[in-house]
Design brief:
Helix content of chain A: 25-40%
Largest sheet of chain B: 5 strands, antiparallel
CATH class of the largest domain in chain B: Mainly Beta
Largest interface: A-B, 87 and 85 residues
Order of helices and strands of chain B: HEHHEEHHHHEEEEEEHEEHEH
Number of strands of chain A: 11
Number of strands of chain B: 12
Order of helices and strands of chain A: HHHHEEHHHHEEEEEEEEHEH
Strand order of the largest sheet of chain A: 6-5-4-3-7
Oligomer: heterodimer
Radius of gyration of chain B: 27 Å
Strand content of chain B: 25-35%
Number of domains of chain B: 4
Number of helices of chain B: 10
Radius of gyration of chain A: 32 Å
CATH architecture of the largest domain in chain B: Roll
Structural class of chain A: alpha+beta
Chain lengths: 313, 306
């Protein structure tokens, strides 16, 4: 090697000339399809080869590439008498064990990091997916995505509107496939049950609501003047039994007004009744609503209608 | 007659050396070990021979640096170009991996990042060298209290042997079960040890804090697990809106739009709670025991309002 670095000459002791010629062909075919004549032209001009070879010899080099895992077509009429490199094993790829690890990491943390950060991670996955040729790896990376059916530019726009608490009009496709305009003062984006939602005071519905981002078709307008709204807030008091076992986490609009070994008494300033009732149903028998009577009755009626489903058992 | 294609053994070995070095940093001995494993003719490979292959790659134009005894390829084919933002995201992932409690995941994520870094083109390397590493705090990812315990239990998942777990139930009673360890699950700021209970045919998520003791048994876990299937029906707005959870599939859609769904992989306690949340839009169909459990849960909950 020292001799090569000094004299820029090669010999069989330093390296494999056959191996070198095969690498040259690989480099040429990676660039574009080449005919045997074109390969020989490059061989003749190459400072370490300076000669041409028979078609039989070239075939030996091509077969060596195939033996190493390259897929190369024959030089025939259909390929304009050129060898075409269809695929090779030197492409960028990631082993499954690394893909599984990055997927596990991301899916364990995406709800705990900022939405903006999750978007950046997915943008990186998308970039890598585009660079990889292996279908299996591409599919794996695509499946890592939480925002599969969501326009990432839309998410970035919504994040900005939430930051500025802008009053916007969105086109929303309801589950029944009906498109409607909804006016909302954007508050935050957050995950709920593996889905991304836009939260805010909906002027259309007259309450603090949440809308699945993948169903938002576009942001129609941004209102220059924000309306003053009084968010309707309902004060709910409820008891949670076995709080440690239930893994009960106090949220932003909740406070503990009483606590002992057996229970917590929580006061919640509820902005969205539907979401709160879902949360309390989740706690099942480990939750009892104390007030207001209206919410208590609503939950009781839901439970009674659920009970009817099983009454013939 | 089988036509044997003629090829050059040496050329193939040079290309094989390139394949190894593209995938990972390797010493001459690593490469020798690889060849000895794959060579059907049981040839002997010497340091000089492998060096000759590496020199061939060098003369062709591949650049290497040597880290201790390992050759690291600096310019693999098909390099990637990343922006400063994308590099910052890599830093963020690196930071998250540092605080993640599972060693195996940490290691493989770092390998993933190194794999990407190996493929950087010159422009990306330059950007990375000039970039000030962002100060990304990951305040909501506090797994420190679980690190020691997960390090111990992680071994059980890797060994794939049955274990006996003694743990506390919600009613404070302790119970011992023989299960097959699967993985750790991170849900709502808590960490669960997810296991397969072969006697009951179900997946169980046991809160790490509830585990009192684990004993590894000298019995291999079965390759296949037989899981109880829960079938439930969803209707109305829920059916229109529903996103399938892991391991679920829709087996039937009725004329009124309601859907019959089967679920195998979810811990039954978590599943029951989740289905309770769906209120009157959900009905458990089978198995009978689970349907009965749902009915009992509704009844017990209603008692709070009698």
């Amino acid at each position: 090697m020292q001799e090569f670095l000094t004299n820029n000459t090669v010999n069989c002791n330093l390296m494999s000339l056959t191996g070198y010629r095969t690498l040259v062909i690989l480099g040429l075919l990676m660039d574009s399809p080449k005919s045997p004549d074109e390969i020989n032209q490059h061989f003749f001009k190459n400072q370490y080869i300076k000669e041409t070879f028979s078609n039989d010899m070239l075939r030996i080099y091509i077969n060596s590439l195939r033996e190493a895992g390259c897929e190369i077509t024959r030089a025939s009429k259909t390929t304009n008498n050129k060898y075409v490199l269809v695929s090779h094993p030197f492409d960028f790829d990631l082993p499954e064990i690394q893909l599984s690890a990055i997927q596990k990491l991301y899916k364990s943390i995406y709800e705990k990091i900022e939405v903006k950060q999750a978007v950046e991670i997915e943008n990186l996955f998308k970039k890598i997916e585009m660079l990889i040729k292996t279908t299996k790896t591409k599919e794996f990376l695509a499946n890592c995505s939480i925002f599969k059916n969501t326009d990432k530019y839309l998410i970035e726009d919504l994040l900005l509107h939430c930051k500025n608490k802008n009053q916007i009009v969105i086109i929303y496709k309801s589950p029944r496939k009906i498109e409607k305009e909804i006016e909302i003062i954007a508050d935050k984006l957050s995950f709920k049950s593996d889905k991304l939602y836009l939260w805010g005071h909906s002027l259309t519905h007259g309450e603090y609501s949440y809308f699945k981002v993948e169903n938002i078709l576009k942001i129609l307008t941004i209102k220059l003047k924000k309306e003053k709204i009084n968010n309707k807030v309902t004060r709910i008091i409820y008891e949670v039994y076995n709080p440690a076992t239930n893994n009960y986490m106090i949220e932003q609009n909740e406070k503990i007004i009483e606590k002992n070994d057996k229970k917590l008494v929580i006061e919640k300033l509820c902005e969205n009744k539907f979401e709160t009732i879902q949360k309390l149903l989740y706690l099942a028998k480990d939750c009892k609503i104390i007030s207001p009577q209206e919410i208590k009755n609503e939950v009781k009626n839901i439970l009674k209608s659920m009970e009817k489903t099983y009454k013939n058992d | 007659m089988i036509k044997h294609k003629k090829f050059s053994d040496t050329s193939t070995r040079v290309l094989e050396t390139l394949k190894i070095l593209v995938k990972r940093d390797s010493s001459i001995q690593d490469i020798i070990n690889h060849f000895e494993k794959i060579d059907p003719n049981n040839r002997i490979y010497t340091n000089e021979v492998i060096l000759k292959y590496i020199n061939t790659l060098k003369v062709f134009g591949f650049k290497f640096i040597k880290n201790k005894d390992k050759y690291s390829l600096l310019n693999p084919p098909n390099q990637i170009s990343l922006s400063e933002n994308e590099l910052k995201t890599m830093c963020f992932i690196e930071k998250v991996a540092k605080v993640f409690p599972e060693e195996k995941i940490k290691q493989e994520v770092n390998n993933f990042l190194q794999n990407l870094e190996k493929r950087f083109d010159d422009k990306t390397r330059f950007t990375a060298s000039k970039m000030i590493k962002p100060d990304c705090t990951v305040i909501n990812l506090d797994y420190e209290k679980y690190a020691k315990i997960i390090k111990t239990y992680e071994k059980y998942c890797i060994d794939k042997q049955k274990i006996k777990i003694l743990y506390r139930q919600p009613d404070e009673k302790t119970i011992s079960v023989i299960v097959e360890p699967i993985e750790f699950k991170y849900m709502e700021n808590k960490v669960y040890f997810s296991v397969y209970n072969p006697f009951e045919g179900k997946i169980q998520n046991i809160l790490l804090e509830d585990i009192i003791e684990i004993t590894q048994l000298p019995v291999k876990s079965n390759a296949t697990s037989i899981l109880t299937t829960v079938t439930f029906k969803i209707n109305g707005r829920l059916a229109e809106n529903y996103k399938l959870h892991e391991g679920e599939k829709v087996i039937q859609i009725e004329s009124d739009g309601s859907k019959i769904i089967v679920n195998q992989k979810e811990d039954k306690i978590f599943l029951l709670r989740r289905l309770m949340r769906y209120g009157k839009f959900c009905e458990v169909i089978s198995p009978k025991t689970f349907r009965k459990q749902m009915k009992e849960t509704i009844k017990e909950t209603l008692k709070n309002y009698s």
